[in-house]
Amino acid sequence: MHTDKGTIETGPNLLAGVSLPAAAVFEPALAHNLTWMQAFADAHGARLAPHGKTTMTPALFKRQLEAGAWGITLATAPQCRAAFAHGATRLLMANQLIGEPNMAIIADLIEDGAEVYCVVDSAANVAQLGRYFAARGLRLNVLIELGVAGGRCGCRDQTQVLALAARLQEEPALVLAGLEGYEGVVKADDGEPAAAIRAYAWRMVEAAQALEEAGLIEAETALITASGSAWYDLIAEVFHEAELGAPFVPVLRPGCYVVHDHGIYRQAQRGVLKRQPTLKQGLEPALEIFAQVQSLPEPGLAVVAMGKRDIGADQLPEPLRRYREGGAAEQTLSVAGWKVVKLMDQHAFVRLPAAADGSDADEVRIGDIVAFGASHPCLTFDKWRRVCRVDAALDVIEEMPTCF
User: What are the pLDDT digits (tens) for 305-356?
Assistant: First the structure.
C-alpha cells in the first residue's frame, strides 16, 4: 500500500502494511467536527460553505454536504471544476475571477448546471467579466469584496462598495448577489484583535444594508459572507445580532475545522471557547502524519523519514505517540520530551531526552512509528495525493484521493 502516488488497498493497519509516511484522518474526530460546526452555524442562523481548499478531498466535501453544508467554498476556477466533478453543485469562489481561461472554466460549470458565485473589487474586473459572460450568453453571480487598508483584496470603504455596485448595474451579464469579506487580514492597532474583528464585521453589515437601501442588490437571495477558521464565532455573532433579514443570508466559510490541527487552530479554538463559554467541547484534531525513525546517528538525536514534503511547516510538527512497527494501536510508547528541531524536505530532526537512549522497554529503535500533529492543515493536505481515513485501531477504512 502506497499513500502518495500509487493506490491504497483498503484494509491494512497503519502499523503494518502501509507505506510510510502516510497522512491519516481519524474517523471519530472527523465525525465530531462535522456535526459540531454544522450545529454551530445552525444555532447562529447561518449557512455553512466550508472552504474546500483546505483539503481538496472530494470524500470530505461529500461528508460536509451530507452533514448539512449549503455549498463548498473554493479559491480558484480549477478547484471549482474539481469540486463540481465530484458532486458539489453550489460553489462559492471567494476570490476574484481573473483571466479568460479561468472565466471559461466557470462558464462551462454554469452551463453544466452549477450555481457559482465569485468576488469582484474593481471596475476593470467587472468590465472583463461582463464582456466575457455576455458573449457566452450567461449570467454570473458576483459578490463585492470589502477589504481593509493594508490588507489583501477588496474595496477599502463603503463608498467604493456602492460605486462598484452602481457600475455592476451596467453589466447585464452580472448579478450582484451580496457582499464578501475575510477577517483574517484584519490588524488590531491597539492589540485587541477580537474588537477589531467585530468592528470589521459590523462594517460589512453596514455596507450590506447600504446596498439594500440603495436598491443595488439584484439577487432575490443575497449573501453576506466571511469567516475563516480562527474568528468564525465573532463573525457569526455579529451577523446574528444584526438581524439583517431579507434578502441577506449569512454564510460562514471555515475550512480547517473539518480536521482541526495541533497548532495555530488549536490555539485559535481555545480563544473561541474562552469567548463562548456556552459552547461544548470544541473541535478535535483529526489529522496526523505517521512516519518511521530511520536513523539514530548520535546520542540524543533521531532522524525521522518525514519532512516538508509530507507535513506543513508553519510550526514544527508535534510528536504525539510512538509505536513498534507491527504493533497494536493500544501499545503506545513514550515521546515525552521529544522535540522536532529541524525539518528538511524529507527528514525531521528530533531531539530526544536522555532517558530515550537507555535500554528499557521504551528504547527508541530504527523502524519505530511516530504519529505527528501538524499546524495548518491546508499546508499538509496539499502534500498528499491520497489520505487514509482510519478508525481508533488505526485500521484503514477508506482511501480518500485529493484533487491538488
Answer: 999 999 999 999 999 999 999 999 999 999 999 999 999 999 999 999 986 6
- CA 275, CA 40: separation in Å to the nearest integer? 14
Instruction: Indicate whether this model's pTM tops 0.85.
Output: yes
| 11 class by beta-carbon count within 10 Å (0-12 exposed, 13-18 middle, 19+ buried) | exposed
Q: In whole angstroms, what separates CA 344 from the centre of its chain?
A: 25
Q: Please, where are the H alpha helices in 169-231?
A: 193-213
DSSP one-letter code for 53: G
Helix axes 100-111, 77-85, angle to 10 degrees: 20
Helices (H), 179-249: 193-213, 232-242
Query: Which residues, in sequence order, are bridge partners of residue 116?
Result: 91
Residue closest to 203 by CA, chosen among 181, 188, 184, 219: 181
CATH 2.40.30.10 holds for 89-254: no
The burial class, CB within 10 Å (0-12 / 13-18 / 19+), for 254 is buried
- CA dist., res. 246 & res. 242, Å (int): 12
- Topology of domain 1-28+260-404 in CATH is Lyase, Ornithine Decarboxylase; Chain A, domain 1 (2.40.37)
pLDDT value of position 6: 42
Using the Cα atoms of residue 72, residue 32, residue 225 and residue 379 in order, give the sign of their dihedral: negative
